[in-house]
Amino acid sequence: MRLTSVASLSALAACVVAAPYGPFPLQDGFPSPSPAQLKGIETLAGGSLPNGPLPTKLQPSAVAALQLIALNEIFEVAYFTDLLTNITTNVAGYDLAGYNRTFVIEALTAVANQEKLHALGANGILASANATQITPCEYMFPVSDFLSAITLAQTFTDVVLGVLPQGQTLFASDGGDEVPLVNLIGSIIAQEGQQDGWYRSLQLKTPSAAPFLTTEAPAFAFTFLQGVIVPGSCPGVDIIGASIPTFGPLTVVSMPPDMNSTATFAVPGTVAPSTNSLVYLSGQNLPLTVPISTVTSIGGLSYFNASLPFDSGFAKGLTIAALVSGTGVSFANASMVASATLYGPGIIEID
Fold first, then answer.
1. CA atoms of 191 and 197, how far apart (whole Å)
2. What is the pLDDT of the chain when averaged over all its residues?
3. CA distance 103 to 256
């Protein structure tokens, strides 16, 4: 088994020297394509936007959920557009040596256009309900070659797959006009799962990581996503932030070489074993709370250790860590963890 981590997207971005990326509007008119341009997007995507009636009423929580979906989908459009540009213009590190270049370009072209339809769909639903739509941001992508780009694509897709079912639960409980959105989001989950299996295969990982994938709360996805958004470039962050909180960064400093060992984390604040614990979300298991230890302060950061008891209920693939208030606390679900979280998510990939 391999244990890897994404220290934090903001920390990684600080290590990669690149100009902010803001390509919009694209040549095909996205995010506001004409009918003819939309037809071209649909052709490249392999299918059309759904043609059924759209909701005209949404609960405030549903508005926030769809805005978060739109924020993420627009980011993904930018990400895959940039990746395709790097490949097709022969940027160093993106020469696809050892890969079927034609197939990879065709596949990523389909993905980029599918994400455009996801974004247009989410904003279309918001517009139908007279809610605020989400506009593009500027981004910083902490990758430098094809493999690192695919690895990050797998990670953010894992995060997306963890939060979309929360949207289904929300829409189902709200009822009314939102009920048809349950099936719509289900179809997106399946499509994202197909993507994720390909990204894993490109890294020679088992295409399907685990029987039950990791769940999370929207605040974890929102915080994670802000790690690639240039601060101040995106009104959508403030709009969504009125409903969904943002946590402080939790950096996974080092992972143990073996399972059932100890990992090291860091946060930009004061922590103590007497007042804080670490919680893991992995698979569909109950959240697992472990104590922290060996706290040291260096350069404004607090470093601490916590056990990683894989055999106590972990799944391969994505595991999310969160530093919470309290010790010895049991949580029934990811939403309860989010309510107690101070720093997170720490992103851990176990393969």
1. 10
2. 94
3. 37
